Amino acid sequence: MRQNSTLTGRFISNPRGFGFVEIEDQEEDIYISEDNLNGAFHNDTVEVEIISGGGGDGKRREGRIINILLRGITELVGTYQANPTFGFVVPDNRRITEDIFIPVEHSKGAVTGDKVLLTLTDYGDKKKRTKPEGKVLQIIGNINDPGVDILSIVMGYDIPYEFPEKVINQANKCPDRVSEADMYGREDLRSVTMVTIDGEDAKDLDDAVSLSIDEKGLYHLGVHIADVSNYVQESSALDREALKRGTSVYLVDRVIPMLPHTLSNGICSLNHGEDRLSLSCLMTIDKNGTVVDHDIVESVINVNERMSYTDVAKILEDRDEEVTKRYKDLVPMFEDMAELSGILRKKRESKGAIDFDFPESKIILDEKGEVIDIVPHERNTATRLIEDFMLIANETVAEHFYYMQSPFVYRVHEKPDPEKITSLSSFVRGFGYHIKTGTDGRIHPMELQKLLKKVRDTKEEGVISRMALRSMMQARYSTECTGHFGLSFDFYCHFTSPIRRYPDLQIHRIIKDYIRGRMSDRKLSHYEEILDEVCRHSSETERRAEEAERETDKLKKAQFMENHIGEIFEGIVSGACSFGMYVELDNSCEGLVRAADMEDDFYIFDELNLRLIGEMTKKEYTLGQKVRVRVLGADRLTKTIDFRLCTDGED
Fold first, then answer.
1. Pick from 322, 327, 227, 321: which is nearest to 270 by CA?
2. 118 pairs with which residues across the strands?
3. Distance between CA 7 and CA 63 in Å, rounded?
4. Among residues 14, 30, 82, 152, which one has the least CA distance to residue 639?
5. SS (H, E, C) 146-168
6. Residue 55: pLDDT over 70
């Protein structure tokens, strides 16, 4: 009986004391009240007993944790507070709701304000009124020291940020130039005119592009990707470290690379004027954007020019005389590229691809790591051009290997959950929009694309786009080719960034085994054996990197707003909940207006329409609404910003 009434899952704690247990392959999680935690910590693997709900009555399942099977967190990062005879650590992870007691002999000499890494020696027991206890492993630095705030986030997410000596030694043994022996058997494309197009500060250049048009009007597009697998051998120390990291992590003040800089900025970077080894996807594309022929080859290339997005946009958008003159020999190719980019984009659009064109921001820091400014970081013709070329190369490679029935790593994006689409549908209806769904609640990406077009340049664009994005599944890596909903592709993979993503490096090895005739039955079995785990781990490290990036952005934005306390800003309502509403400013900083501070009325949260309604005045605050707020406070420790609504005429 007990066997049937218990489930095993992962406990996700909420900062407010309760939590949920996620069960693998079950969409609905199980609510756990504070009284039923039984000592569970965030991320623990637990056995949970259902105590109510889930009987077909529509009520949410509620459970009681009866057993902790595996601790999910053994180390954590926090801020040390000293007392004369002991200390305690306030965890950075707000899901850890209790401070950690530190006996003075286990403090390593930490002082108040130090960021520390600790190991948990005891998880505490609320029934016995004992607190969690720990031991300081490392003092990261004082909270006010430059870079310590970000390093604390890196360590809190357990992101490896220093390369082991063995890995560095192996990287240093790699050649710094391409030898004649390396070029043997490769297609020599050094006479083909090609460029890299990246941000001004990029140093790891892993893709170059070339384009020509023949007498029939067919486009010959080459996407040339650094052949990292030539230098990172499978199962080597370099490879094991790259797999462990899974991806490069791009934070506001640093990049934590997947591969040592010796490789990523050296022999693997497609620096202009230098011979480089690459894998080239050579596509012939017609006027409709259809790839009518393609070849994937090992090549040797020599990039003619290192271009920036800014300069290419100046040529194509601004017709800047000085820049156009400087690159006059390349201008015709850029114009052809812009033309092909438009064709490819139009084709994707006609199939229903969804383009979430969110305004992005760039956080500018000084040498001490303090925020100087937050500026818009917009896409332009050049960024879209490269995006379009990488997408078509990734699609072409994925389709090629799908039809070869080869073991492979695909990038998949499943159809949204019908329940989430129903919620989105009722939400947008409140703004006067309609989306068409099937009888099973499923939706075609074309419908979401239409919705995003309709809301473009309206006050509700940001909020509806976000709600649409939240209704999507999360893209991941898989050995099964189930298609990419958001791009409306039947076949898709990540082939174009092997310097900074492990799945791309893995794909390159598979491609080269076929090109060189090495794909034996033994090799096939080997890939079938390892690829599921590569996909799972790569998806996990990608999520970890995204979370760390979000946390560092929130930290720096809170730090920025510390200098603007008392000032008035304009923003839009970006979220609503029972305890208030979130407001996002034009500079992308988001803060909370607490319902308790809305003194003109008592506001009730309308959960269905995500709005706050005044009990007496019936005044409404809805998502997307413009408001004026005064900055009440900002806290870099909790990474939060507090606002108060301005009254009419207040300045």
1. 227
2. 76, 136
3. 10
4. 152
5. CCHHHHHHHHHCCCCCCCCHHHH
6. no
Q: What is the pLDDT of residues 613-646, one digit of tens each?
A: 999 999 999 888 899 999 999 998 889 999 999 9
Distance of CA 452 to the CA centre of its chain: 21
Which residue type sits at 343? I
Looking at residue 562, the DSSP 8-state letter turns out to be G
User: What 3-state DSSP class applies to 425?
Assistant: helix
Contact (Cβ atoms closer than 8 angstroms) between residue 612 and residue 605: yes
β-pairing verdict for 626-635 and 568-577: antiparallel
H or E, element range at 569: strand 568-577
Q: What is the DSSP string of 289-315?
A: S-EEEEEEEEEEEE-SEEEEHHHHHII
Q: How far is the C-alpha of 215 from the C-alpha of 201, rounded, in Å? A: 38
**Average pLDDT of span 456-480:** 88
Dihedral sign for Cα atoms in the order 437, 438, 441, 446: negative
Based on its alpha-carbon atoms, the radius of gyration of the chain, rounded to whole angstroms, reads 27
User: What mean pLDDT is predicted for residues 215-221?
Assistant: 97
What residues are paired with 410 via a beta bridge? Answer: 478
How crowded is residue 587: how many other Cβ atoms within 10 Å of its Cβ?
Answer: 17
Give the dihedral sign, CA 244/249/255/258: positive
Q: What are the φ/ψ torsions at residue 10 (nearest 5 degrees)?
A: -105, 130
User: To which H or E segment does residue 316 belong?
Assistant: none
Q: Per-residue pLDDT for 191 more than 50? A: yes
pTM for this entry: 0.91
Instruction: Output the CA–CA distances (angstroms, integers) from residue 402 to 406, 506, 632, in the order listed.
Output: 6, 15, 56
Task: Give the C-alpha separation, 208 to 275, whole Å.
Answer: 13
HSE-up (13 A, CA, CB side) for residue 340? 31
The predicted structure's pLDDT at residue 3 = 41
DSSP three-state, residue 597: helix
Q: Going along 155-311, which residue ranges are E strands? A: 187-188, 195-198, 207-213, 219-226, 249-250, 255-256, 275-285, 291-302, 305-308
What whole-number distance in Å separates Cα of residue 109 and Cα of residue 589?
Answer: 37
Q: Which residue would you say has higher pLDDT here, 60 or 148?
A: 148
Rounded to whole angstroms, the Cα distance separating 318 from 321 reads 9
Local structure of 386: helix, strand or coil: helix
- Type of residue at 555: L
Instruction: Give CA–CA dist 219/510, Å, rounded.
Output: 27
How sure is the predictor about 67, in pLDDT bands with cuts at 50, 70 and 90?
very high
